[in-house]
Amino acid sequence: FQFVYSHVGPSYFHSDFLFKFLVIGNAGTGKSCLLHQFIEKKFKDDSNHTIGVEFGSKIINVGGKYVKLQIWDTAGQERFRSVTRSYYRGAAGALLVYDITSRETYNALTNWLTDARMLASQNIVIILCGNKKDLDADREVTFLEASRFAQENELMFLETSALTGENVEEAFVQCARKILNKIESGELDPERMGSGIQYGDAALRQLRSPRRAQAQSTQECGC
Amino acid sequence: MQKIKSLMTRQGIKSPQENVHDLRPIENFRIPSKEELRELREQPTDPQAQQEIINSIEEVYFSNDSLDIVKYELEKLPPVLSLQELEEYRDKLKQQQAAVSKKVADLILEKQPAYVKELERVTSLQTGLQLAAVICTNGRRHLNIAKEGFTQASLGLLANQRKRQLLVGLLKSLRTIKTLQRTDVRLSEMLEEEDYPGAIQLCLECQKAASTFKHYSCISELNSKLQDTLEQIEEQLDVALSKICKNFDISHYTKVQQAYRLLGKTQTAMDQLHMHFTQAIHNTVFQVVLGYVELCAGNTDTKFQKLQYKDLCTHITCDSYIPCLADLCKALWEVMLSYYRTMEWHEKYDRDEEKTASSVSDGSNVMGTEETNFDRSYVKKKLEHGLSRIWQDVQLKVKTYLLGTDMSNFKYDDFIFVLDIISRLMQVGEEFCGSKSEVLQESIRKQSVNYFKNYHRTRLEELRMFLENDTWELCPVKSSFSIVQLHEFKFMEQSRSPSVSPSKQPASEISRTVTLFEQYCNGGNPFEIQANNKDDETEDVLASNGYESDEQEKSAYQEYDSDSDVPEELKRDYVDEQTGDAPVKSVSRETLRSRKRSDYSLNKGNAPILTNTTLNVIRLVGKYMQMMNILKPISFDVIHFMSQLFDYYLYAVYTFFGRNDTFESTGLGLSSSRLRTTLNRIQESLIDLEVSTDTASTLTSAEERKEKVPSPHLSHLVVLTSGNTLYGLAERVVATESLVFLAEQFEFLQPHLDAVMPAAKKPFLQQFYSQTVSTASELRKPIYWIVAAKAIDYEQMLLLMANVKWDVKEIMSQHNIYVDALLKEFEQFNRRLNEVSKRVRIPLPVSNILWEHCIRLANRTIVEGYANVKKCSNEGRALMQLDFQQFLMKLEKLTDIRPIPDKEFVETYIKAYYLTENDMERWIKEHREYSTKQLTNLVNVCLGSHINKKARQKLLAAIDDVDRPKR
């Protein structure tokens, strides 16, 4: 599994890319819990509504490349909309989260999507996450209709559970992988302003001390 | 007869005794009668003739056969008997007999003295024999008596008894020896049972016993064997003693101590024990660390076993660091507890000893007690001395471990956990030997500074990210919001003095009197408990990791969305103030009061103005303060770093909204020298300016740059150039007021910070507050001034004023149009201000500053306009007054600000026109606020009316004079 360093600054671990990510969706869909689960591998059961925007970062390995995710976890509540919207700009990827036990959160997806497409970069890669998969008994949104919605809107789709951790890492990794693919195919240009993508410090670091970089990479997977 | 014959022939008898013997059978030998003897004497005594006669005796007479001589002689008689012949014959016989008798008599006579002599000897012999017979008889009689008194059997019994007794003694000895030789088995049994005193006792007894048997040759071998055994016991005892170090057991130790006392080696035991403790500490830590290193290495490579402890410590991986440390502490605790309990045992033992000593204090044991007293005091001293030595050992081992790994990249909560373990260990040290744990403190300080530096650098980077992403939108919080509601400041709520060491050990604080040693004496481990608590604690800290999780916080933010909530909220605050019930959080009081009077704080209540980034900084401050509580030794560093957070925020707000080189260069003194000093200081110490220019050129060292952050850039989303939004006034207000809010929070926290600040460093804090925090509100001036300078078109007004004729000859009743134009500008400004205030609450000080700046700028523009006048009449001067009055009248309807700033400035300038020469000279000297140009113009305008050329020269000289010292 991955070695997690949520508090590690950008200068510590080398990474090949830095992606700006967003987590959006209605209040109470479990966005912060998803992020917490992703970073700390733990479920946060006493969480409250997020104020404004929170931040978390993690380095993941996608297809041999180290990608640092800079994730902005936005408040879902309407009153914070003006604050959160300003963080959309230049996001390379987004997790659009709804709650499978609440149709209301599902219905709001179109609005969130419009906002994201409008405010973030044009090529933003969005993955739709039907959270609270563990509460299958209270399900109000079927997998089928959600996946149809995702298909229509060219979204990736996963049902996740921040409680059990199911598909949480996958959601982030799949999104990052898609972005990497787009970079490789030339569809996305990291050099362009507002792409939400930056080259990491790996190249520079490797030039300076290749041995150390190697040692670090082994440490990352070894532990 | 034969014999007699031979005797006679031989003519000499050798021994009379032979004769006696020979004679015995012829006891009845007939002694010759006298008659015969006479007859014999009558016969011739010729020996020859006699011999012939004897020889003529028939042979038969000498025969020994018992033949009947008579018969023989009769038979021999011739058949015709003749008396003569018979006679003759008889005579012949008679002759023969006489010769024989004569011969015998001669012989007898010859032998008489010998016979007498012999007889005497026989007699004496007979007497001797008779005596011997008497003795014999007596002896026999005695023997018979003895035979009657002691039987032979009983004598035999006695002899046997004696023999038996000897044999029994021998058997006993042999048995003892056998037992002695068998003791070995028993001894090893006893050793197995760990009955050392018993074994030694036995061994010593054996030795003693053996010495009594030393005349047996087998004993010497036994003796040496016993000596060996004793040594072996001692060795085992030593092993047993070493076991004490890891797991103290009273009965076990009592036995061992008893054993050593028996050996008379109490002191040696103490020395050994200390050596064992030192050894135990080393072995324990080595084993624990080795275990983890090998576990993590995942292979059974033995290379680690050969490593030095110090090198081994560097092989610990990050994720095994904490469990290993916990185990290390647990193991060391066991050792120290054992030591503690050893001391405890000795104290108790001493007391018992004294008791018994005092109760049985007879003189006989004086020597012994003296010796034990000496031993006891030696042991006591040794143990007390050992405390600090052992603690020192422990500290050094832990230090090596602590410094073996670079912890700077640990998670916050992990690091806190490490600190917590160490602080607990220091508590142990304190209780153990009253140590201040300098070694641990120093190493933890080193790690903390290192960690915190790294942590802080990351936080600063993150802060920059926040600042650069912030669009300076208001973050909506409740009006009653206070930072103490934030999870990060929960520790302040728990009325705990900030100087008390960190959270997390409430249990130990409550039961302060119970030491850890008392608490965990009978099992358990203080470091174990902590490990169990770890999950909870991590949760806590994680929760603070940017995600709030507090009921308190909930109440601060939730329910806000429901609109019905707001008026109630407002009402409550209002009531609070009416009754004079000071709100608990006095931080927001100023803003609270201002809301009532402000025109522009309408719909948003009096909620504090803050942004997402402000909240982030505040949370960080909370975390830093928690850090500080835990990390007393580096509290200064933490506060220093904390001040950098504020510095950076202030610097960002200034560079985003306040820096304006064109206005700054006008020298209007918009930012006070204090503010400028502060900004310069921040720029020099904190801002890495090279990044923005060229990354390749690294003039400053990398180390130094590490401590710095690049200057932040304002988000592209923020537009500061549109007049419609009053040049980003909303964002400016949010940014500037959030800074002021942040400063207020810092003010609020000052006493807390001051309390943890080391006395020597207090000046730093004071300086930070007096030179940085307090300058926050001063930023308003340059920031809002930019708005004020752009909001009103002053240039346009100057142009309009230039078109006015001032040398009119009559008093005008209508003001000039430039006044209307100016007022229109102000109305528009007011409108836009209202627009903005719909988005963002504009606090009274802010609107006041804005108005003040605008009016001041307008008034100065007016004066400048008046100073541009070429010609002016008295009536024209009156028109100026009229215009200004009109302006004031209308303006006072637009704003609450009183008095109108720089009103005097304009009025005085206008009226100075009327002054006489002398008065004007004095006036010029007194009013340095006007520029040389303005004063010169005043003098020039007056020329021709009431000032002549000479006076003008004089006044111009005065202006110059005034000017000069000004520069």
Automatic annotation (TrEMBL), chain A:
InterPro entries for this protein: P-loop_NTPase, Rab4, Rab_GTPases_membrane_traffic, Small_GTP-bd, Small_GTPase
Keyword field: Endosome, GTP-binding, Hydrolase, Lipoprotein, Magnesium, Membrane, Metal-binding, Methylation, Nucleotide-binding, Prenylation, Protein transport, Transport
Catalytic activities: GTP + H2O = GDP + phosphate + H(+)
Molecular function via GO: G protein activity; GDP binding; GTP binding; metal ion binding
CDD domains, per database record: Rab4
Membrane topology annotation: Lipid-anchor
Family: Belongs to the small GTPase superfamily. Rab family.
Protein function: The small GTPases Rab are key regulators of intracellular membrane trafficking, from the formation of transport vesicles to their fusion with membranes. Rabs cycle between an inactive GDP-bound form and an active GTP-bound form that is able to recruit to membranes different sets of downstream effectors directly responsible for vesicle formation, movement, tethering and fusion.
Protein name listed in UniProt: Ras-related protein Rab-4
Organism of derivation: Sphenodon punctatus (Tuatara)
Gene: RAB4A
From TrEMBL, chain B:
GO molecular function, a single term: SNARE binding
Classification via InterPro entries: Syndetin_C, VPS50, VPS54_N
Compositional bias of kind Basic and acidic residues: 587-597
Organism: Sphenodon punctatus
Keyword Coiled coil annotated: yes
The keyword Ribonucleoprotein is assigned to this record: no
Single GO biological process annotation from the record: endocytic recycling
Protein name, as recorded: VPS50 subunit of EARP/GARPII complex
Coiled coil regions in record: 216-243
One GO term describing the cellular component: EARP complex
A Pfam family annotated for this UniProt entry: Vps54_N
Keywords assigned: Coiled coil, Protein transport, Transport
Domain (Syndetin C-terminal): residue spans on this chain: 726-960
Chain positions covered by the region annotation Disordered: 1-22, 545-597
Bias kind Polar residues: ranges: 8-18
Vacuolar protein sorting-associated protein 54 N-terminal domain boundaries: 54-345
